[in-house]
Amino acid sequence: MLAEKLNMTTEEAEKWIVNLIRNARLDAKIDSKLGHVVMGTQAPSVYQQVIEKTKGMMSRTQELARNIEKKLNVDKLGFDGGAWDAYDPAGFFKH
Domain PCI spans what residues (predicted)? Predict the structure, then answer.
C-alpha cells in the first residue's frame, strides 16, 4: 500500500523505509511478512531527563543574568556598554 503511494516497487519501498529508520536513528523493526513497521518505545531515563532539563535551565539562567547585568549598567552608569566615552568616573575628560 505504501509502495503504491510512493510509486515504488515493494522492495524499493522497503529499502526506502530501512534507510529512513537508519537515518532518523529510530528504534524500529520491519515485519516483512505482515508488511508492518514496529516502532520501539524507549523513554529517556530519569538521569537523561534531568540532564536535558538542566541544560535548558542553565542557558535560560545565563541569558537572564546577561539581561540583568545589562539593565544594571544602563541604570547605574547611564550607558548601554557601547558609549564608553560617556563614562568618566574620575572626571578626566571634562570640557
Answer: 1-44
